[in-house]
């Protein structure tokens, strides 16, 4: 049997999405030697084995890539005969000084396997709100630098315990080289505080659930920032939120426990179902059923409209807010209001201290944690027009995925966006990478957010803009 050594480069949306562990697992299955390495904008593969095994490897890889990954191109670089193959297959350290641009990964909704773990009393991650693996968990919002590795995320403050290290090193584990993993022993922790930020000496999740069941407004530190949550069946709590937030009419988004609850209250098409359950997990605007009018205070949730913005619990923390753990007397919630944790026209809060200050007149309780959020990301918002999804607010889950262009952009260019509903963008080579929705640049907080984005995006993508595109209006902050 003739043996070969072949090198390939994989291009696409592949960083931080579990591609390297997947490659490793499949290489082992076909007894291939070699290595996989993250180069920044691509993944480099060295494969050693028979031609048939290498072919089978590539076919299997395309079938088994993690769901959020997109391989656009497999480029063969080299092929040479070898007399024997090394039996080992290694994941090499990322190349930190790659001169290439990188595609940095979006946050991914909780996967089924992690969901099963957090509700399994025998699992060591039972009830743990920061459970994640190679195919789910925070990415974009915790990244401090590139390439995407744990040491360049805010998880670096939580060194892995022995059990987590074993999972991280075990090629047959779902957590093999998963950068954002943690467990109750070594990872971030929750705490609950009163409205002044004073810690309450109580179990955080059950206290938060108890508070919601009593009609309180909870400020919750989520994936991309703070959210305000309350019982969506409680009319007086919704009225109170609208009063405190000075938001009399704008619709409030809700989170529903699972798809069966969504189907009880809303008309959902197949495309709607797949959007709700996708790794991006956006808010989807759905038509209300008669059932919703009978049971929910829809005139308070979404006045003057026949629709409601609905999402499913996309992080372990949200799941644990909906469902009681053993011994918690408060029943599962069906529908919770889940609206952005901000004051009018300000961006959502991401830091605990900032939230205690800015949301103290709105929230009764704060459910916070110590996993820092670096980059802000609102929940994305999608509507469905004639069975085609239209993204109205492109943020968590979608950003910072790039758009491919037909033509190449001659020099790296930074687009500063508009004054209202701002989004910045950087274009280079054959793609444009848009920032998440930043919002109206009317407050110092929003301008700070905008400035952080236009600093980080070129840095993380390793593209120094040679051209900056601005609106000619002289008074816009973005100009
Ligand atoms: Zn997972
Ligand atoms: Zn651990």
Automatic annotation (TrEMBL):
<keyword id="KW-0436">Ligase</keyword>
<keyword id="KW-0808">Transferase</keyword>
<keyword id="KW-0863">Zinc-finger</keyword>
<feature type="domain" description="Acylphosphatase-like">
    <location>
        <begin position="5"/>
        <end position="93"/>
    </location>
</feature>
<dbReference type="GO" id="GO:0003998">
    <property type="term" value="F:acylphosphatase activity"/>
</dbReference>
<dbReference type="Pfam" id="PF01300">
    <property type="entry name" value="Sua5_yciO_yrdC"/>
</dbReference>
<keyword id="KW-0378">Hydrolase</keyword>
<dbReference type="InterPro" id="IPR011125">
    <property type="entry name" value="Znf_HypF"/>
</dbReference>
<feature type="active site">
    <location>
        <position position="38"/>
    </location>
</feature>
<dbReference type="GO" id="GO:0016743">
    <property type="term" value="F:carboxyl- or carbamoyltransferase activity"/>
</dbReference>
<keyword id="KW-0479">Metal-binding</keyword>
<dbReference type="Pfam" id="PF17788">
    <property type="entry name" value="HypF_C"/>
</dbReference>
<comment type="pathway">
    <text>Protein modification; [NiFe] hydrogenase maturation.</text>
</comment>
<dbReference type="Pfam" id="PF07503">
    <property type="entry name" value="zf-HYPF"/>
</dbReference>
<protein>
    <recommendedName>
        <fullName>acylphosphatase</fullName>
        <ecNumber>3.6.1.7</ecNumber>
    </recommendedName>
</protein>
<keyword id="KW-0862">Zinc</keyword>
<dbReference type="GO" id="GO:0016874">
    <property type="term" value="F:ligase activity"/>
</dbReference>
<dbReference type="InterPro" id="IPR001792">
    <property type="entry name" value="Acylphosphatase-like_dom"/>
</dbReference>
<feature type="domain" description="YrdC-like">
    <location>
        <begin position="202"/>
        <end position="397"/>
    </location>
</feature>
<dbReference type="InterPro" id="IPR006070">
    <property type="entry name" value="Sua5-like_dom"/>
</dbReference>
<dbReference type="InterPro" id="IPR004421">
    <property type="entry name" value="Carbamoyltransferase_HypF"/>
</dbReference>
<dbReference type="InterPro" id="IPR017945">
    <property type="entry name" value="DHBP_synth_RibB-like_a/b_dom"/>
</dbReference>
<dbReference type="GO" id="GO:0008270">
    <property type="term" value="F:zinc ion binding"/>
</dbReference>
<feature type="active site">
    <location>
        <position position="20"/>
    </location>
</feature>
<dbReference type="InterPro" id="IPR041440">
    <property type="entry name" value="HypF_C"/>
</dbReference>
<dbReference type="Pfam" id="PF00708">
    <property type="entry name" value="Acylphosphatase"/>
</dbReference>
<dbReference type="InterPro" id="IPR036046">
    <property type="entry name" value="Acylphosphatase-like_dom_sf"/>
</dbReference>
<dbReference type="InterPro" id="IPR051060">
    <property type="entry name" value="Carbamoyltrans_HypF-like"/>
</dbReference>
<dbReference type="GO" id="GO:0051604">
    <property type="term" value="P:protein maturation"/>
</dbReference>
<dbReference type="GO" id="GO:0003725">
    <property type="term" value="F:double-stranded RNA binding"/>
</dbReference>
